[in-house]
Amino acid sequence: MLGDLDAFQYKRRDCSQTAKQLMVAEVIDATSACYRVGHETQLQLSQDYARLFGVPPARDVGRLKEAAGGRIKAGWDAAIRRTHGILPHSF
Asked: Tell me: the pLDDT tens digits for 59-76?
């Protein structure tokens, strides 16, 4: 599959995969993810993402979060506590 992609296509695919990881692991929305991976617009990311994964980012990430249950929220809560130095009992 890599041999079939030119540099531009490879970069766009890589950006979509990175955005997916950000949206799931860091619990950010598609708009935030699009700018973090270098896309100029959320529409550009959505189109590339849907082309690669078959569904728009919000639907795909929502499905992944639902399948993961509380594990993602627990990870997000822990990350917030670490970032802000909040002890578990005060969050």
From this structure: 888 888 777 765 555 665
CATH 1.10.3470 fits 2-90, yes or no: no
Backbone dihedral angles phi then psi of residue 70, each to the nearest 5 degrees: -80, -5
Structure tokens at 54: 């078959």
So where are the chain's domains? Answer: 2-90
- C-alpha of 84 from chain center: 22
Contacts for 23 with CB less than 8 Å, ≥ 6 apart: 29, 30, 33, 57, 61
Res. 91 pLDDT band, cuts 50 70 90: very low
What type of residue sits at position 71? Answer: R
Ordered DSSP codes for the chain: -GGG--HHHHHHHHHHHHHHHHHHHS---HHHHHHHHT-S-HHHHHHHHHHHHSS-HHHHHHHHHHHHTHHHHHHHHHHHHHHHT--GGG-
